[in-house]
Amino acid sequence: MKSRIQKPSTPIAGVALLTLSALATVAHASEQTRASKQESVGVVSGLAIGAAAGGPLGAILGAAAGGWLGDRYYRQTVAREALAAGLDASEAERSRLAREIAGLNGSLVRMQSHSERLDQALDRAHELTLDVSFRTADATLSDETIERLRHVGGLVAALPDAVVRVDGFADPRGSEEFNAELSRRRANAVAEVLMGAGVPLERLQVEAHGESASKSTDGDLDGYAFDRRVTVRIERGSTGQVARNH
After folding, report:
1. What are the helix and strand counts (H, E) for the chain?
2. Of the candidates 233, 134, 244, 234, the residue with the CA atom closest to the CA atom of residue 186
3. What are the φ and ψ backbone dihedral angles of 129, each rounded to 5 degrees?
4. CB contact at 8 A, 55 and 32
């Protein structure tokens, strides 16, 4: 008697076809992005679960569910990695802010110490004077001078009963009108830096004297250099006014 080869039943054939399809999907997935790989893993897992649970129909439904699980796993992985990176960035930012705060605290301590010394010096001398020199026919301040004036302004701002007199001068070359305006510009340039450093306007007294205070003889270039100045006087008091020609 010849043995007959039986055709596989439809359910078994369906499982075989789906298994081959799943293998093809895995082979193709190796060439895809990370997201596609995660989804393909979910498809294979879904096929295995679905086939065991309910034959061909179960395999199809399992494949759909597996794809969803794989995609969800990928998204959660990306979110977790982003959160970890964010935590690292936050930690670095906290460290940076802590360093800045420590630096500011140190600066405040030094500023307070300098202000206390300035206060003591005013008690002894009643007045402190600083001269700022200028080039011929010029009212601009150098970066070094601006930095020095900012430091002085910060110290004065910390002393509530200290006021500043700012007096501008010019050498006698040129007309009286020109020199009066030039000395006013020089005085205002210094006053603006002091105000920017925290000295209130009401604690500033600014005056422009032009060439009236010059003691230089005609042609005395060295004497002219001393005339081109702004004198800053720090003293006790409570008066202030805007710049004016004297």
Report:
1. 5, 4
2. 134
3. -125, 140
4. no
Task: Give residue-wise pLDDT tens across range 80-135.
Answer: 777 777 777 777 777 777 777 777 776 666 666 666 776 676 666 467 889 999 99
The β-bridge partners of 129 are: 233
Q: d(Cα 186, Cα 27) in Å, to the nearest integer? A: 81
Query: How many domains does one find in the chain?
Result: 2
26-30, 127-131, 150-154: segment of lowest average pLDDT: 26-30
Same domain, 161 and 204: yes
Q: Is the pTM here over 0.85, yes or no?
A: no
Would strands 127-133 and 229-236 be described as parallel, antiparallel, or unpaired? antiparallel
pLDDT digit string, tens, across residues 203-222: 999 999 999 999 888 888 99
Query: Which residue, chain included where needed, has tokens 């004497």?
Result: 223
Q: How many angstroms separate the CA atoms of 224 and 135, rounded? A: 10
Last residue of a domain, one of 84, 113, 142: 113
Q: Which two tokens stand for residue 238?
A: 């409570």
